[in-house]
Specification:
The structure is a single chain. The protein is α+β, with helices and mostly antiparallel strands. The chain is built from 3 helices and 2 strands, in the order αββαα. The longest helix is centred in the middle third of the chain and has 12 residues. The radius of gyration is 17 Å and the shape is elongated. The chain starts with 6 loop residues before the first helix and ends with a helix. The mean pLDDT is about 80.
Length: about 80
């Protein structure tokens, strides 16, 4: 189990609904989703604690029916 020495950091993580993925006692990964401003706010708030690396992916669409990529792109552009 991870032990947080910084209560403020723990509160920020809980308030953002981020998921903690433990790697070892000294290193963990946060996983979350949300709008751009929510992710950027989380990054800003945690920067003071020494984030080693930050990665943000783009939008992801999930569909039940097969959809050609050109149709998917057209749907996003509309």
């Amino acid at each position: 189990e991870l032990v947080f020495e910084e209560r403020q950091m723990h509160n920020i993580i809980n308030e953002s609904d981020a998921r903690i993925v433990p790697v070892n006692r000294d290193f963990f990964v946060l996983e979350t989703s949300g709008r751009r401003h929510e992710i950027e706010r989380l990054h800003r708030e945690l920067s003071a604690f020494g984030i080693m690396h930050f990665v943000r992916s783009g939008r992801i669409a999930v569909t039940n029916d097969e959809m050609k990529i050109t149709e998917m792109l057209a749907a996003f552009n509309n």
